[in-house]
Write a structure and sequence with these properties.
- By secondary structure, this protein is mostly helical.
- It has two domains: 63 residues; 235 residues, no CATH class.
- Helix content is 71%, strand content 0%.
- It is built from 17 helices and no strands.
- Helix 5 packs parallel to helix 8 and helix 14 crosses helix 17.
- 40% of the residues are buried.
Length: 345
């Protein structure tokens, strides 16, 4: 597999390629609008209802004092803003939209779906750099239409937005790795920082992929040059600053003091059941066939692409080992696996 290969041998010409992509993205949006107005009980209802309650609380807090909302309802909504773990970005966007169009529970479903599909654009750009135009189209089709992804990307929780930003951050990181410009460094830092801010779990795939980039820089130019690269430190600063400020503020304010309580269970590493449950999650999400093809694909790419993809894979594996209980029992904790597998394929 050659990096940055450009051809239209399968599509015939640029117009056919563009038409294929437009149709794919249109269908990707359309299939996620099925049963749009149904209550969010189709998938992880507890998690979705939790976000809906937070969005309602924010919405009622924005209403003027003379709004036609009973006092008891305002008071009840105000109590439903906690607990807070990750920044309620999607909830705030949804609440602001309520102010314009009214309180409809399906608005968040549209936002989650749009963010996921927009992530497919960055996936195409990254896959094109790693392989070819044809390979990029295959990656996008897998990403948009794998059944589990369709279901989860409609849900009202931060994970679809986080996954889309992981893809955008990975694209910007690899692009900066290839071009080495200050503009690319700023873009990579900002997009990676946005992903980490939405949900700090994004630090695992993006952080290890960034270390892979540093490793490649050191191999090509030496460790001294790599570690004194000002662009690299700018990327790191921009990536870590937003989530760092939020975390320090949350710990000081008290709402993040117990964030990692009951999340780290290293004793599971020595039990066979943990690995079997994790493999069961992978089978249910993407299937062992796609998983095997994606792993093989990593080693068929060019050196830079292989090292970068290995960084994403190792990041996912370290994430799973760190949150062993959740990765094996909560399928949406594996959501970042979908774009990683798509790139491997």
């Amino acid at each position: 597999m050659m990096e940055n290969k450009s051809s239209y041998w399968f599509f015939g010409n640029r117009a056919t390629l563009i038409a294929t992509l437009v149709l794919a993205f249109a269908l990707g949006i359309g299939i996620r609008m099925f049963d749009l107005t149904d209550l969010p009980l189709d998938y992880a209802p507890t998690r979705q209802l939790f976000s809906l309650l937070k969005a309602r609380s924010m919405y009622y807090g924005m209403l003027p004092a003379d709004a036609n909302v009973p006092a008891w309802q305002r008071a009840m909504a105000a109590k439903q803003t906690t607990p807070v773990i990750e920044p309620p970005v999607l909830e705030m966007i949804t609440a602001l939209t309520y102010r314009v169009v009214g309180e409809y529970t399906w608005i968040a479903r549209i936002y989650s779906s749009l963010f996921w599909v927009l992530g497919g654009i960055f996936l195409f750009l990254l896959a094109r750099q790693l392989s070819s135009l044809e390979g990029a189209v295959v990656a996008v089709l897998f990403y948009l239409f794998v059944p589990f992804g369709i279901i989860v990307s409609r849900s009202f929780q931060p994970d679809p937005l986080m996954t889309a930003l992981i893809i955008a951050g990975a694209w910007a990181l690899y692009r900066w790795h290839s071009a080495g410009t200050w503009k690319g460094a700023v873009t990579a830092g900002l997009l990676m920082g946005a992903a980490l801010f939405i949900k700090n779990y994004a630090a695992f795939p993006l952080g290890i992929a960034a270390l892979a980039v540093v490793f490649e820089h050191a191999r090509e130019r030496g460790w001294r040059a790599a570690l004194t690269d000002r662009q690299m430190w700018l990327v790191a600063l921009l990536a870590l600053l937003p989530v760092g400020i939020y975390t320090l503020y949350g710990i000081q304010a008290g709402f993040l003091a117990g964030q990692f309580d009951f999340r780290f269970f290293p004793e599971l590493w020595t039990t066979g059941g943990f690995y079997l449950r994790w493999l069961g999650q992978i089978e249910g999400i993407i299937g062992f066939g796609a998983f095997a093809v994606a792993v093989i694909g990593v080693f068929l790419a060019g050196r830079r692409a292989t090292v970068f993809l290995l960084g994403l894979w190792i990041g996912y594996l370290l994430f799973g080992m760190t949150f062993a209980y959740h990765i094996s029992t909560h399928d949406y904790y594996n959501l970042m696996l979908i774009p990683i597998v798509a790139l491997g394929i």
